[in-house]
Amino acid sequence: MISIAPLCAASTLVHLAPVDLVIIVFYFVLVLAIGLYLKGRSQTGEDFFMAGREMTAWVAGLSFLSANLGSLELMGWAAAAYQYGILATHWYWIGAIPAMLFLGLVMMPFYYISKTHSVPGYLKLRYGESSRCLAAISFAFMTVLMSGINMYSMALVMKVVLGWNINFSIWISSLTVAVYVALGGLRSAIFNEVLQFVLIWAGSLLIPILGLIDAGGWTALQARIAHNASAEYTHLWSTLGSFNNNPMGIHWTGIVFGLGFVISFGYWTTDFLVVQRVLAAKDLRAAKMAPIIGAAFKMMVPFIVILPGLLALAVLPVKLTGETAAVASGGHSYNEVLPLMLARYCGPGLLGLGITALIAGFMSGMAGNVSAFTTVWTYDIYRALIHKNASDRHYVSMGRWTTVLGVLISVGTAYLVMQFASIMDYVQALFATFIAPLFGTVILGMLWKRTTSEGGFWGLLIGTLSSMGMWAWVKMDPNALRYVALSPHARVMAEDMYRALWSWVVCVAVTVIVSYGTKPRSPAELTGLVYGVTPLPSEAQVAFYKRPAFLAVVVGLVFVVFNLMVW
Amino acid sequence: MLSGRSISIWFFIGLCLVVDGALILAAGLYELAHPPQFPVVLFNLHASIWWGGPLFLFGVLYCYRFFPGWGKNGGGRAARGEEIHAKQS
């Protein structure tokens, strides 16, 4: 048995009581038990990689959201809320809800009816092998890198918050994920993600409740933020008329078109990390409902992420700073805002649950990365390029080993980032814009039957290269920011958004031009893949209030009301 | 674990809530009897008790409702497709 005590530093942000440690250890035991239980249920490829395609809408929807709700998501956006105010909410609302509803209503029928096992798999069916290979290799590469970066960031937080040794945090959490995903495959990942989703809410929801009581309610909170920071920090849209009028240095066009359209639609509709969960749904209706259920809960996430950041602005007696300044002054950084709020309100037991929520967030995010990597590697790279005609059992075995290998590569990346911290910024910046051209390729393929294989491939390739080119241009010449992000005052996030927008435009333009110059496939070949030539099942027999479209409208209306409330 | 039967995902969640809720509730009751030297902010609200208690009750409810082997086909709501099915071995 590993002793926790020697792994803890003397000075930490929070101090765990024995009851907290029992809660954390019980969580680890439970997720491993679930993996062991499901091992016998994942013997075929369909079971291991697609969870048998038998998830209900609720399970697929919660897992869909949980795979995205990593610990970095929780702590990073709470930090962003402290730094930039309520503007950070855009990443949860306009930066997610329309895209999730669009995925459920428009795109899922094609993903699901085509019976593809992955997004690159859809590209193979629609465009051919070359597009699939390009998307699969870049996705696999970026996914394990991102997984490692997340792992390192989480270990760093555990070190700062709990004083845990960084190696201990990396190895214990990553090996736990490796064991339960390798044993039970996607089913185990989804099973645990739903558990993690519940824990994240149970462990985090208390902070905003107690924080609002502490601050004296929403109106008093706004007044205190106006006093401590600025009144602009509590307005979502009214400050976006100019780059200079808001803490983020962004214009509404960047939020609406860059974030709300390209980055959001790119991530939520084509990133296989999240789409894989919906592909595991038991039928088309469940597949359409899952993203809508996910959207309903996504809309609530700011209450446990953004609100604590805002509350910290009002109630914390200390001023938080950037990482460098915090290290120099011995103070606290923005990134510690969520643990600081946990420590402020949560006594023994509740603190353990809160820390478990952060660990659960990390593990759900990592399991999402690893299971998506495993499927893409096994089906879209190994089976397509290396070993075409092996048995199903062979591919399942490959999937189990790839899970372990993926985790080990992620651990290697985590140590690489430890040595060269700038890698983290590079990969995150590129990942944000890599998915933008992929969205262009997929959406044209689904909605426009004239798109050709050559158009899809060249659009994706040149769109991706243009994104990397713009990033390198700004790196070499910072003055280029005025062209890429339309303003020399734009900050990093604004630059990412505009770069995504331009790379999507390049992808779409190249795809359209090349498609008009090449021969399209016949409509018969596109059945099940493209709008207009795919018969979609009627929902006439389903009561209107149970139809995905009706529920999407309800979610959409709530989304509009929420935005107006904090305009 | 029941051989040849499937355990609902909601049962695992119930189990987790029962254990965590009971521990938090117990810690809250202990602190009520022995107030800490350095209490957290809003300690007077005793959040551990009113948060741990409902978690425990929800957990008991879920464990009861989705207990393996209870209900039709040995899996509570399994027969109505409310769980991750496992293939019958």
Question: How would you explain this protein's 3D organization?
Answer:
- The complex is a heterodimer of chains A (567) and B (89).
- Chain A is mostly helical.
- Chain A has one domain: Up-down Bundle (Sodium/glucose cotransporter).
- Chain A contains 23 helices and no strands.
- In chain A, helix 17 packs across helix 18.
- The longest helix of chain A has 39 residues, at 166-204.
- Residues 1-10 of chain A have low confidence and may be disordered.
- With 89 residues, chain B is mainly alpha-helical.
- Chain B is 49% helix and 0% strand.
- Chain B contains 2 helices and no strands.
- Chain B has helices at 9-33, 47-65.
- In chain B, helix 1 runs antiparallel to helix 2.
- Residues 72-89 of chain B have low confidence and may be disordered.
- The interface between A and B is large, with 43 and 38 residues.
Name the descriptors:
heterodimer; A: 567 residues; mainly alpha; Sodium/glucose cotransporter; 23 helices; disordered N terminus; B: 89 residues; 2 helices; rod-shaped; disordered C terminus
Short description:
The complex is a heterodimer of chains A (567) and B (89). By secondary structure, chain A is mostly helical.
